[in-house]
């Protein structure tokens, strides 16, 4: 049965005009405390994925422009690192307060450039703000240690010092939270930063810079350099090879992460890489099926399946397979309404790019050709009054074990449900991929909960829950899902060097 569409009558320009604080809608880069256009005069368009209308034209900076931003960050570093942790905490707290106060405008802007439903966008704004608040508090807790020395007459202490200028490269799927999770930690540690937001979603990052300026964060401490898709490789190369940049943090695909890692090796930069995932979601025979189905709707279809930790491979025990599928399909049908993120009643927005939608179609086609059966969705909705990269939430059953979506990250609204017969089998299949970011499973067996959580080769596990992200939890993966952790007390450590000092007394 086709999904009902709630995308009628949306005008991107009219919705943009509803943003009350117009100063949040920026089209220039932010360098050294000034809003600047590209010296070349080049610009690129930002497009609403729900209408394909242009909503902004933004400065298209190049490698030379990035070099100037790095210079500005480097010039500001000495002063910023000299501020006390309490002073940095106070400025970050002001930034947090301004983000929260601007929640409605930021959410509308985010929906227009990213596509996610307005309520979901508002949730991201608060989620993103939570990292700024958290790291404001962590700034005052980045303490060193005192060690007992093996030699008489000496004392050993360690101190933690900021790494230096950090290059921050963020993705399009969480244009606010991915900036704040990285920048909050860096600024709290005493680093200065140059942010390159995704070319699809630069407006949210620029709005955050406007609020940071209002909060009193000094010129040059936070810089944002926008660039088009064509300019991205050169801009990324400048951040990874410029010797003044001592740290690079990137969230994106594994292939790009490997490329950046190779480039950064030339100057031995510190790296944080949060890369691709292929999360298993396992429903054992003793699971609470209603709870598992409820959480799977959220875990799979949030942001139209465009999250690195979303459930990508659903494994259901053969004894409850048919029952679970029925419950899950009923919930998806009842809860999800496809449409523009600003349309009344929308709970499921567009895919942000045509390339992403085409990938979903390709994986679906290959799965069906191999014998999988579509029981819900499976097409681009018809009858839309607006254009856009829409694709229905899609559920597939009887999925063969060797289809591409079993080993490739989908990053879209395809939900393949595989069956399994034993715990050993499903652990082996869950761990059979090269990546290991997140995993989920449902079981009432306490012993199994510990056993499976420890056996899954991932950086994060949800046991009887599909919601695992928060500012207090270390976020990151293993294997080819990257290195380092973001959020939590470990997140600030990624931007600090430990220096050992030996005193002779």
Layout of SSEs?
Elements: H1 12-17, E1 29-31, E2 34-36, E3 43-47, E4 54-59, H2 63-82, H3 85-101, H4 103-114, H5 118-138, E5 146-147, E6 154-162, E7 165-169, H6 177-189, E8 192-196, H7 202-215, E9 222-224, H8 232-241, E10 245-251, H9 254-264, E11 270-274, E12 279-283, H10 289-301, E13 311-317, H11 321-335, H12 354-369, E14 373-376, E15 394-397, E16 414-420, H13 423-430, E17 435-436, E18 438-442, H14 446-455, E19 460-463, E20 478-479, E21 482-483, H15 488-491, E22 496-504
Parallel strand pairs: 7-8, 7-10, 8-9, 10-11, 12-13, 12-18, 13-16, 15-16, 18-19
Antiparallel strand pairs: 1-2, 3-4, 5-6, 6-22, 11-21, 14-15, 17-20
Helix pairs in contact: 2-8, 3-5, 3-6, 3-7, 4-5, 4-7, 5-6, 8-9, 10-11
Considering the chains and any ligands shown, give keywords for the structure.
505 residues, alpha/beta, seven-stranded mixed β-sheet, six-stranded mixed β-sheet, 22 strands, globular
From the N-terminal CA to the C-terminal CA, the straight-line distance is 80 Å
Tell me the number of strands: 22
Strand order across the biggest sheet? 14-15-16-13-12-18-19
The helix count comes to 15
The percentage helix is 25-40%
Structural class: alpha/beta
**Overall geometry:** globular
Major sheet characteristics: 7 strands, mixed
Mean pLDDT: 95
pLDDT < 50 runs, ≥5 residues = none
Question: What is the C-alpha radius of gyration, as a whole number of Å?
Answer: 23 Å
Pfam family, one: Aldedh
InterPro entries: Ald_DH/histidinol_DH (IPR016161), Ald_DH_C (IPR016163), Ald_DH_CS_CYS (IPR016160), Ald_DH_CS_GLU (IPR029510), Ald_DH_N (IPR016162), Aldehyde_DH_dom (IPR015590), Aldehyde_DH_Superfamily (IPR050740), Succ_semiAld_DH (IPR010102)
Protein name: Succinate-semialdehyde dehydrogenase
Organism: Coemansia javaensis
